[in-house]
Specification:
This protein is an all-beta fold and 134 residues long. The protein has a single domain, classed as Beta Barrel (AOC barrel-like). 0% of the residues lie in helices and 69% in strands.
Length: 134
């Protein structure tokens, strides 16, 4: 079984104390709280690590977030892994379901998510598949 889920979401990022406080460090941490709507009715909590650069528009982040709720009516949890870079203003983002992280009716979930930001609003497009696991 597979499909495409989409809808809006709200996100709240909160700065956390930096682990590396050396002078000149461009590393940072944030907590993530999201509320998904639409085909994915869920909340998520996660953590983000980021690094800036002396070059304007260049940075990177990685994040993990645990999503809990319903995906097209199927209840469970799963984990999303983010890997992103900004190369002098050109973004590259990959968000993937962590293998075998699905629980409940989302056991066997795989997929990738795109985030779209337009006019200050966040939406997602989630290409997903649920496979029977041995």
């Amino acid at each position: 079984m597979s499909g495409t889920a989409s809808g809006p979401f709200e996100v709240k990022l909160m700065p956390q104390p930096a682990y590396n406080t050396d002078e000149g460090s461009t590393l940072g941490r944030m907590s993530i709280d999201k509320q998904f709507h639409g085909d994915l009715e869920a909340t998520s909590k996660g953590e983000m690590l980021m690094a800036g650069s002396v070059v304007k528009g260049s940075a990177g982040y990685v994040a993990m977030e645990r999503v809990a709720g319903t995906l097209t009516g199927r209840k469970g949890t799963f984990v999303l892994q983010h890997t992103a870079t900004m190369n002098r203003g050109a973004p590259h983002l990959s968000i993937t379901v962590v293998p075998d992280s699905g629980t409940g009716e989302l056991t066997g979930l795989t997929g990738t998510m795109d985030i779209i930001i337009a006019e200050g609003k966040h939406t997602y497009k989630f290409e997903w598949k649920i496979e029977e696991r041995p």
